[in-house]
Amino acid sequence: MRYWNILLLLTLIGVMSACDKQSMSQVMVLQGKVMGTVWRVVLFGVDSVHKKALQQAIQRQLDADDHMLSTWKPDSLLSRFNSYQGYAMQPISADMADIVTKALRIGAKTKGAMDITIGRLVNLWGFGSVKQPVHMPTDAEITLVKTQTGLQHLRVIQTVAGQWLQKKNPGLYVDLSTMGEGYATDHLARLIERQGINNYLVSVGGALFSRGHNGKGKSWRIAIQKPTDNENTAQTYVNLQGYGISTSGSYRNYYELDGRRISHIIDPATGWPIKHKLVSATVIATTALEADGWDTGLMVLGSEKAKELALEQQLAVYLISKEKDKFVSWMSPQFLIFLTKGKNGNRDNF
Ligand code: ADP
Ligand code: MG
């Protein structure tokens, strides 16, 4: 969804190194581009004659997902809904109804911190498909645009005849960017499983899902990157087996305006980009979609409220904050269960 350089917080460090020479011969790595980011699939035990067909099938499916969810493509299903400025129910696909329903649920649980109706604010701050801004938005502009946001203005309607979305505010503009990578990741996992493949790791941008083992009979070991601008070193490692993981961060996707760092994550309550000490939120959930929804909500809330919510909702959460010049991390009890040792045997490498 995002057409600028996206941070790839979840890398495959450790995955390849975990494979010995013999099993490497059975590794198949596929990758491509979608939603302004990179998708990647690592498989074991699949005959290389299937590689080309699989690559094409994956790309086709991901392009179709993008065509449903993109706010960058004027003819996407979502863009057509956004450009309609009225109250009538608009037909959508079952998949889109599912994504929006889940997004609204997470939105309610984060008390509106995760808000997919934030699109006009995202555009106002220059992170959407509408090219903006060369000046800081004024309070009046923000206040005006805020009247066209809010979870209460959007409704999903499911009947035996189909699924619809309805605006209760005709100016509403839905932005599913924050859930897009997670959705595409889960969808990709389903495509892989339909081929009868049970040992795989798939990722789209910062969302990832894995199942089975890595060719050595071990669960996949995922590295979570350090929240610095350039480094490609791992902060910590988790074992993933049948779970999705997603990271949202404020430290790479930003620009400077009037000497201020403008993050691409916006607090729906104030209409302003977030500006607190929390630099990244990683969530593990049963689906990458859920993880991708929660991580943004937690980023908006900031460390203290994010911790409270993680404990209350029993989420597997890993937060990294910047305190003075040091990075300070926090893990919920549910996240600790997934921790694994890094390459050098340490549990935490910073
Ligand atoms: P990334 O993986 O790039 O950190 P996220 O999954 O955190 O991305 O999603 C960030 C995107 O979500 C923004 O670029 C914007 O389009 C949208 N967004 C920004 N603020 C919010 C919010 N409070 N709720 C929902 N979506 C948001
Ligand atoms: Mg997200």
Write the layout of secondary structure elements.
Layout: E1 10-11, H1 21-24, E2 27-34, E3 37-44, H2 51-69, H3 77-83, E4 90-92, H4 94-109, H5 119-124, H6 139-146, E5 154-159, E6 162-167, H7 177-194, E7 200-204, E8 207-211, E9 220-225, E10 234-240, E11 243-249, E12 254-257, E13 260-263, E14 278-285, H8 288-301, H9 303-313, E15 316-323, E16 326-331, H10 333-336, E17 339-340
Antiparallel strand pairs: 1-9, 2-3, 3-7, 4-6, 5-6, 7-8, 8-11, 9-10, 10-17, 11-14, 12-13, 14-15, 15-16
Helix pairs in contact: 2-7, 4-8, 7-8, 8-9
This protein binds adenosine-5'-diphosphate (ADP) and magnesium ion (MG).
Compact overview of the structure:
By secondary structure, this protein is an alpha+beta fold.
What is the CATH class designation of the largest domain?
Alpha Beta
Structural class: alpha+beta
Q: How many helical stretches?
A: 10
CATH architectural arrangement of the largest domain = Roll
CATH topology of the largest domain: the name is: T-fold
Described by the principal axes of the CA atoms, the overall outline is globular
Biggest beta sheet summary: 8 strands, antiparallel
Radius of gyration: 20 Å
Low-confidence stretches: 1-25, 344-350
> Alpha-carbon distance between the termini?
32 Å
Write down the overall mean pLDDT.
Answer: 86
Instruction: Tell me the number of strands.
Output: 17
Q: CATH H level of the largest domain: which superfamily?
A: ApbE-like domains
Q: How many domains comprise the coordinates?
A: 2
**Bound ligands:** adenosine-5'-diphosphate, magnesium ion
Q: Return the string of H and E elements.
A: EHEEHHEHHHEEHEEEEEEEEHHEEHE
Sequence of strands across the biggest β-sheet: 2-3-7-8-11-14-15-16
